[in-house]
Amino acid sequence: MFSLSALLDFDDITIQCHDNPDADSIASGFALYTFLDAARKKVRLVYSGRSKITKVNLLELLRALSVPLEHVKDLPEAKALVLVDCQYGAGNVTKFPAETIVVIDHHRRETSGFTLEIIRPQLGSCSTLVWDLLKKQDFDFCACPDVSTALYYGLFSDTNNFAELSHPLDKDMRDSLCYDSHVIKKLKNSNLTLTELRIAGTALTRYKNNRDLGYAIFKAEPCDPNILGFISDLALQVNSIDICIVYACIQNGIKLSIRSCSREVMANEFIAFLTEGVGSGGGHIEKAGGFIQQSALDGLKAETEDFLEARAQEYMNAYDVVDAANHALDITGMAKYNKKKIPTNYVMSADIFAEGTPILIRTLEGDAEAIASKDVYLMIGILGEVYPIQAGKFWVSYEAAEDSAPGLDYSYAPTVRNKLTGDSADLLAFAKPCLPLTEVHIRAAVLTRNTKIFTAWNAEGYMSGKPGDFIAVRDDDPQDVYIVRKDIFEKTYKAP
Ligand SMILES: [Mn+2]
Q1: pLDDT digits (tens, 9 = 90+) for 22-56
Q2: How far, in Å, from the CA of 348 to the mean position of ligand 1?
Q3: pTM of this prediction?
Q4: What is the rounded CA–CA span in Å between residue 432 and residue 343?
Q5: Range of the domain at 297
Q6: Cα 125 to ligand 1 centroid, rounded to whole Å
Q7: Same domain flag for 387 and 460
Q8: How many angstroms is it from 234 CA to the middle of ligand 1?
Q9: Of the residues 172, 188, 204, which one is the last residue of a structural domain?
């Protein structure tokens, strides 16, 4: 596992942002610079490329936080060259010789063969990744308000003002950094130049509106990604547009911003579909954003707009909707299965925080709220999903188990936060194993089409499944219809 302590083996380190650096790249580099400088390393922070920074918010960022970023044409061979928010050899960053190459990035992998690397495409910003790495080095963020402010702004601008942010680590960083609110306010309001206002205006007049399928596609000239969020927010205000895709070709790829007010299309799920296999994307039900690698499109020999349209149509044309709240599912042809009695984990909420404390549970799937009490337990599923259950209901369905539950290896271990103090705890540290008392009987069938299920308990969104996943319904509750991923189904259900 990559750790920043590996960098401390070098004395001469150059940190390189991508060409035409954005706030995220600058912030990531600056935080790393501060860490290495404090460790008394010889360190430089640079970027290259033909053009120097001209964007007003970035110049203000450099000035307000005294970021020692240099623009270079050439670079003497460094012992270690650390690339932030980009990958060595990729099209958006000038290639300089170095003995050791280190890559710290949050984009989809494009190149490989580095000495040291950490690439996490699920994260909303590279700033989040650097923040997480620094935390593991016990970096004192409160003692470095400039670094905190830079990282906060890096995430803010890479996720369209936090609107397109989805990963729990992103939220953890947003919630915990003590940033300078005056600097942030100034940066937030230096976002648009008159040229960018014109780009937004032009993009809004050139669009393709597919009225049958209810979406519109807008193309903007190459611009800062934040402008796309601005355009899509405006476009969604139009009465005949319920879903919009706004994109621009930027360095080595396509940046996308999605908005949806349609009940049947969740923006975060839609962007995941659009970028599957060619990029990455995430966000919320109504707002999401993503990135497609140009090299992936070249590989498919597809023009950007044709590709987006084809994917959008494929998505809109090929899903079934199950309204489980209002209609009974037709179970003819569905086979019987029993849920295996496999150990799982639970946490007594009153073990973590005093009774009556409002708590926020944060998992990969999103945030949930509860009040700590002797009567509220938290169940932890095998994917790290967490849901509250009443103690009474728990004890009629489960018993405490001896052996610990397997598979507690999550990409984000669920955390629980005291909403009053902001203190946060690792939920797994309080987990105890339990076993279901009886087998649950269900009927299930393999999905042959993309399917969305609207359930009685979630008015906001839907559960979605792909061909190969299972649709299931409990024998004792015909309204309890849900989707189980293929790999999970095989682990948790068996034929009677
Ligand atoms: Mn970034």
Answers
A1: 999 999 999 999 999 999 999 999 999 888 998 88
A2: 38
A3: 0.77
A4: 10
A5: 194-317
A6: 5
A7: no
A8: 24
A9: 188
